Amino acid sequence: MFVPMADGTILHADLDSFFASVEQRDDPRLRGRPIAVGGGVVLAASYEAKAFGVAGGMGGRQAKELCPDLLFVPGRFDAYTKASKAVFKIFDDTSPLVEGLSIDEAFLDVSGMEKIAGTPAEIAARLRVRVRDKVGLPITVGVARTKFLAKVASAQAKPDGLLVVPVDGELAFLHPLPVEALWGVGKVTAGKLHARGITTVAQVAALPEELLVSLVGKAAGRQLHALANGRDARRVRTGVRRRSIGGQRALGRRGPKTPEALDATLVALVDRIGRRLRAAQRVCRTIILRLRFDDFSRATRSQTLGAPTADTRPILAAARELLAGAMPTIEREGVTLLGLSLTNLEDADAVQLALPLDETKASRLDAAVDDVRDRFGGASITRGVLVGRDPGIAMPLLPD
């Protein structure tokens, strides 16, 4: 049985156009101008660019047609990581209950803090000021009784805003919104609902749960019915170990992608992701290759290893096998994004060692290379296949 919380004490804090905002913060010449991070493909767009319809994942040529004055800037993931850590430090100083969702957003639970820190709205306002003053970035915060409503509130308050959803006004806030505001409603589900003339959350809430289940499936139907009626019993969770580590590289739409070029991109991704895996002292069992094609459709392929590992060699071998299997489709459809995820993670010290019980040469080599890169920078050691190639920016799929 769902038991509502007495007060709206959950904050959803979301940095605005994070990558683009970092670039504008660090280069005054970019402030107030439409910019896009990336090149062949837009990785992130400033709000000045979004006003023209420019969006992440859009091809560079299309973005330039929409916004002739658009400025492209190369991505600097080290700068984004540093900014994210500074912001999360403020989150942790604001509340003991912080659940990171990605590199630029988190839930905070401020229940029980009113006597020492003020109301949730006051805490949220102070959080926004601290992030602006200490990190130099705009951040939007939604405050509500549930995680879902807090996240919807922050989306409605963007950019650089604060929105509090009163407990007695939840449905009045939620029901006029389009069905796309509900978690789990993408293009396919929205299309099914629109075909029935259902365009608002209020209309979803009015449907019998059984009808929703028949339209979109059992799990999705039950979830949509609950959310549309303001029910979300999930709590802010801390200390949750991540289930996957991944990254992706936008490739652009211009020209064919040779197998050699794609392999170099894959090698760079494996190097970066493997380094993060080992730094977190985790091992993986499953490798997932993610592809986006010229028509914006997507595909995934996966392979599960015989034993969990953090070694580069078996991970790269599996990734190359997956890429080879996808090459006929890539050659036919074209590819604009290549991503890789390492999943089924376990703690490295919890895995039973395979015989022989000694550290492999490959593991020692990975550790030595990681150490050099940690001390002297990621570009201090480069694979031969990557020499002379643009390393690009490998966007993380999930935060560290």
Automatic annotation (TrEMBL):
Broad class of where this protein is predominantly found: cytoplasm
Purpose of the protein: Poorly processive, error-prone DNA polymerase involved in untargeted mutagenesis. Copies undamaged DNA at stalled replication forks, which arise in vivo from mismatched or misaligned primer ends. These misaligned primers can be extended by PolIV. Exhibits no 3'-5' exonuclease (proofreading) activity. May be involved in translesional synthesis, in conjunction with the beta clamp from PolIII.
Gene transcribed to yield this protein: dinB
Subcellular localization, as worded in the UniProt entry: Cytoplasm
Needed co-factor(s): Mg(2+)
Pfam families: IMS (PF00817), IMS_C (PF11799), IMS_HHH (PF11798)
Quaternary context: Monomer.
Name of the molecule in the record: DNA polymerase IV
Origin organism lineage: Bacteria, Bacillati, Actinomycetota, Thermoleophilia, Solirubrobacterales
